[in-house]
Amino acid sequence: MFANLRRAFREAVENMQRELDAGATPDSVRRLIHSMEGEAARTKASLEALRKDLEITRERVHREEESAETCRRREAMALEIGDEETAALASKYAASHRERARVLADKASAIEAEAKLLDEEYREMLEQIRRAHARAGTLSASVGRTRARESVAGADDLFARMHGMAAEVDGDERRGEAAESLFDDAGSVVDERAVREAEADARLAELKRRMGVR
In this predicted model, what pLDDT tens digit does every residue of 18-41 receive, in sequence order? Predict the structure, then answer.
């Protein structure tokens, strides 16, 4: 089980590294960090279970040692009164309790070693997650700056386009005024108001077309 946890966490770290190398987005990195945190949480739960098992096993060792000592005292008492049969039985039970205590002590040592290793790995996981959060923060800041620059550049381009369109419209208006003066000079009977309205409508339509407005 612990090997599976370690393997799953390593895979999450490797996946994040690949994402970063491939130009990952902050959202994809956050998802990978969430996966890493999940594996770390499961590792912590396993570590706590190991520590509880270690506590229980040590308590069992203590009880077996106490039982062995009790049997040893009974053996001594039986020998004092010459009860060989009881002494032999007490000695047998004492040996059995001592053997169980030895086996349990070995088990406790193995659990303790496993818990120590898992604790080191858990701390390393936390450090990896801390680094991942830092890298995600740097990536988010970089993306934010890039988007801000693109937004400013886009706004500058839009203003430049609008300025150019306004200049062209202003030129159209001046040409319209020149045309009106021609009507005046020629004494045209054309309805000047209708002409101006038609020209204004035409300029507005042209401006909308250039700005992509329908």
Answer: 655 555 556 666 777 788 888 888
Residue 153: the pLDDT is 46
**Alpha-carbon distance 35 to 125, whole Å?**
12
- 100-105 contacts: CB < 8 A, separation 24 or more? 100/64, 101/61, 101/64, 101/65, 101/68, 104/57, 104/60, 104/61, 104/64, 105/61
CB 29 within 8 A of CB 144: no
Q: How many CB atoms within 10 Å of residue 101?
A: 19
Side-chain half-sphere exposure of 209, counting CA atoms within 13 A: 7
Token pair of 211 as six digits: 């700005």
Task: Tell me how far apart the alpha carbons of residues 33 and 130 are, in angstroms, rounded to a whole number.
Answer: 9
Tell which residue, 172, 165, 171, 161, has the closest CA to residue 198: 172
The parts of the chain modelled with pLDDT lower than 50 are 141-155, 158-159, 162, 169, 178-179, 181-191
Distances (CA, A) of 81 to 43, 67, 77, 84, 191: 57, 22, 7, 9, 144
Per residue, the 3-state secondary structure of 137-188, as one string, reads: HHHHHHHHHHHHHHHHHHHHHHHHHHHHHHHHHHHHHHHHHHHHHHHHHHCC
Q: What's the rounded Cα separation, in Å, for the pair 209 and 214?
A: 7
